[in-house]
């Protein structure tokens, strides 16, 4: 059997055909693609549900919400050059964040706990992006619009390494302090603070090079 036989499987061929139809703005094709990728999406969602949230909601509930919201926003999304499965995974994460906020009030807790990794005060250049990042994680619906600041923040976050992305999500979604994050990811408190600081700096660099984001900021000043 050829080594690349898996790449020629019926499911793979069907997925490629559906992706082409999706990029041609065929809404039914997205519905078929979501159903085809149901097992992978459910596994993706289940892996990212915290034990605490799992007691409140099931992966299948997130999947149903994901399906409805993505089909509802289909017309406003540009799929040219975009992997629909990766987009669905990103939207699944947004739904998980929304569920966490709904059940546990993460945004309120985060605002009442540790103010920032660098602390507040003059010269704290990271404070703005920290606040925006927290807002983007707790306002998933805003990320559907390419004209929203939160969308660009979410896109930049997805480009970070897995460990950095996880640390930032624990910090700004769940409101954990650096010591708690350190225990979660298996690092020292000092190393975790460095990771968070460098990750924020990297996001700032990416956003400073994003012309659309900078234009949006200029328009809102």
TrEMBL record:
Keywords: DNA-binding, Sigma factor, Transcription, Transcription regulation. One of its GO terms (biological process) is DNA-templated transcription initiation. GO terms for molecular function: DNA binding; sigma factor activity. It comes from the Bacteria. SUPFAM superfamilies: Sigma2 domain of RNA polymerase sigma factors, Sigma3 and sigma4 domains of RNA polymerase sigma factors. Residues 153-203 form the RNA polymerase sigma factor 70 region 4 type domain. Transmembrane segments: none annotated. The keyword Transcription applies. Gene3D superfamilies: 1.10.1740.10, Winged helix-like DNA-binding domain superfamily/Winged helix DNA-binding domain. Belongs to the sigma-70 factor family. ECF subfamily. This is ECF RNA polymerase sigma factor SigD. It comes from Thalassoglobus polymorphus. The gene is sigD_3.
């Amino acid at each position: 059997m050829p080594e690349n036989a898996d790449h020629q499987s019926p499911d793979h061929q069907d997925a490629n055909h559906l992706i082409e139809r999706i990029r041609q703005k065929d809404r039914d094709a997205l519905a078929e693609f979501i159903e085809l990728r149901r097992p992978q999406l459910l596994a993706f969602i289940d892996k990212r549900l915290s034990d605490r949230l799992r007691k409140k909601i099931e992966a299948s509930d997130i999947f149903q919400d994901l399906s409805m919201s993505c089909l509802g926003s289909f017309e406003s999304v540009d799929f040219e050059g975009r992997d629909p499965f990766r987009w669905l995974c990103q939207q699944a994460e947004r739904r998980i964040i929304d569920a966490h906020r709904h059940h546990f009030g993460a945004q309120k807790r985060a605002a009442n706990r540790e103010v920032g990794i660098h602390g507040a005060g003059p010269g704290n250049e990271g404070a703005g992006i920290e606040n925006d990042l927290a807002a983007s994680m707790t306002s998933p619906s805003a990320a559907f619009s390419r004209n929203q600041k939160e969308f660009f923040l979410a896109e930049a976050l997805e480009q970070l390494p897995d460990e950095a992305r996880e640390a930032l999500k624990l910090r700004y979604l769940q409101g954990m302090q650096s010591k708690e994050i350190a225990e979660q990811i298996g690092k020292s408190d000092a190393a975790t603070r460095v990771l968070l600081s460098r990750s924020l700096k990297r996001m700032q660099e990416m956003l400073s090079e994003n012309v659309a984001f900078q234009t949006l900021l200029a328009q809102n000043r």
